[in-house]
């Protein structure tokens, strides 16, 4: 009989964590329950079995402080005790923590109940600036010792986890999966204006300022064009100001955070996707940006950087540019804009084929099921 899996999350569910939701929904509902500190975005992510264990908790800053403090305490926190109680009440056979900090929170329940614990790392949890002067090796020492298995999104993250002290023989690469039905394939016929699209939280590692500088350099060679930027975050004001300084105000559209249906509609209308990720000043970095998979699934050619595990999730890794290289991004935009229809379709098919082959969420979930079986 398939195991009942308790999925442990800090929040269920931020808009940026659709990959967690796809894992849940691709398996029968009776095989999964969610154990979370607080529930958010319930309309966007409906799920029947959700245990909200600390609903009054606040956002990112408080969560980061709480993670630091809880690791220093000799006794389990309220949330950790809640996970154990809810998992026991549901009769969970296995716990699956999403992000390393959730693995820390779930370790008490795993040991108390005698059930195996799988922790999935996605990137931010390995390189997060939340650790301050510490790194993952100190934050996850107990988890690395007591966790049953660990997954990560690609070889770069795996090697970093091992460097930080995670046992290599317990690490499995589990690629991000997306629901291909949500991103129907359509090769792009370029009409004017040419639409360049970036979808990202407005933080340093996303390189939106690089996109703006690159677009300013490329725009005279692109003909009629627009840059659409979907998302929001702490750098919004400075990025809007930069667009004004670069004389791009009439050409750049900051669209704010949109619902998933609206994001898919914008992807369907765009001609080129861009994601110049980089290592942020505070050390934060990507894992595998899901948006690059969604764009390629829909037939959109992408421009991105040699960063983290991006080389393993794009159809043309040899064309990736260096981090901070606005000139390289600009050249790539101009090159893609000048493709013939046949060349454009060839690239679109290559991107879609890559996603179908390696990131179809049904295949990813089957692989995840194999890992569950190995553990139980």
Write the layout of secondary structure elements.
Elements: E1 5-12, H1 18-25, E2 32-39, E3 50-52, H2 60-72, H3 78-90, E4 94-98, H4 100-113, E5 117-120, H5 124-127, H6 136-139, H7 141-146, E6 149-152, H8 155-163, E7 171-173, E8 194-199, H9 208-222, E9 225-230, H10 236-245, E10 252-256, H11 260-269, E11 272-275, H12 290-297, E12 302-304, H13 326-337, H14 341-358, H15 361-375
Description:
With 376 residues, the chain is an alpha/beta fold. The protein has two domains: 5-177 and 360-375, Glycogen Phosphorylase B (Rossmann fold); 181-358, 3-Layer(aba) Sandwich (Rossmann fold). Helices cover 42% and strands 16% of the residues. It is built from 15 helices and twelve strands. The chain has helices at residues 18-25, 60-72, 78-90, 100-113, 124-127, 136-139, 141-146, 155-163, 208-222, 236-245, 260-269, 290-297, 326-337, 341-358, 361-375, and strands spanning 5-12, 32-39, 50-52, 94-98, 117-120, 149-152, 171-173, 194-199, 225-230, 252-256, 272-275, 302-304. The longest helix has 18 residues, at 341-358. The radius of gyration is 21 Å and the shape is elongated. The model has no long low-confidence stretch (mean pLDDT 91).
Keywords:
Rossmann fold; elongated; 15 helices; alpha/beta; 376 residues
The total number of structural domains is 2
Structural class: alpha/beta
Low-confidence stretches: none
Shape: elongated
The tally of strands reads 12
| Alpha carbon gap, first and last residue | 11 Å
CATH topology of the largest domain: Rossmann fold
Strand content: 15-25%
Proportion in helices: 40-55%
Biggest sheet strand line-up: 3-2-1-4-5-6-7
Order of helices and strands: EHEEHHEHEHHHEHEEHEHEHEHEHHH
CATH superfamily of the largest domain: Glycogen Phosphorylase B
Q: Count of helices?
A: 15
| Major sheet summary line | 7 strands, parallel
């Amino acid at each position: 009989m398939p195991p009942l899996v308790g999925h442990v999350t800090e929040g269920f569910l931020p808009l940026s964590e659709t990959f967690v939701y796809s894992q849940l929904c691709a398996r029968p509902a009776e095989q999964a329950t969610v154990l979370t500190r607080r529930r958010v975005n319930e309309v966007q992510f409906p799920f029947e079995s959700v245990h909200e264990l600390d609903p009054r908790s606040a956002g990112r800053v408080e969560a980061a402080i709480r993670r630091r403090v809880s690791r220093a305490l000799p006794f389990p926190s309220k949330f950790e005790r809640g996970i154990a109680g809810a998992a026991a009440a549901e009769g969970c056979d296995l716990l699956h923590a999403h992000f390393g900090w959730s693995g820390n929170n779930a370790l008490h329940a795993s040991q108390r109940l005698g059930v195996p614990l799988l922790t999935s790392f996605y990137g931010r949890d390995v390189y997060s600036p939340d650790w301050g002067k510490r790194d993952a090796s100190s934050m996850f020492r107990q988890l690395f010792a007591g966790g049953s298995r660990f997954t990560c999104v690609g070889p770069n993250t795996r090697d970093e986890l091992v460097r930080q002290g995670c046992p290599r023989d317990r690490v499995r690469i589990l690629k991000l999966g997306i629901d291909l039905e949500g991103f129907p394939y359509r090769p792009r016929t370029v009409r004017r204006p040419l639409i360049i699209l970036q979808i990202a939280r407005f933080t340093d590692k996303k390189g939106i300022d690089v996109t703006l500088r690159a677009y300013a350099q490329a725009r005279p060679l692109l003909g009629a064009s627009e840059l659409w930027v979907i998302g929001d975050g702490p750098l919004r004001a400075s990025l809007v100001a930069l667009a004004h300084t670069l004389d791009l105000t009439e050409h750049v559209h900051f669209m704010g955070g949109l619902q998933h249906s609206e994001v898919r509609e914008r992807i369907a209308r765009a001609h080129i996707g861009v994601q110049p990720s980089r290592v942020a000043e505070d050390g934060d970095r990507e894992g595998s940006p899901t948006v690059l998979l969604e764009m390629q699934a829909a037939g959109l050619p992408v421009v991105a950087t040699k960063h983290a595990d991006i080389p393993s999730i794009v159809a043309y890794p040899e064309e990736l540019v260096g981090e901070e290289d606005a000139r390289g991004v600009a050249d790539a935009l101009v090159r893609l804009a000048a493709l013939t229809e046949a060349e454009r379709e060839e690239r679109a098919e290559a991107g879609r084929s890559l996603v179908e082959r390696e990131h179809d969420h049904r295949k990813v979930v089957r692989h995840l099921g194999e890992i569950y079986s190995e553990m139980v």
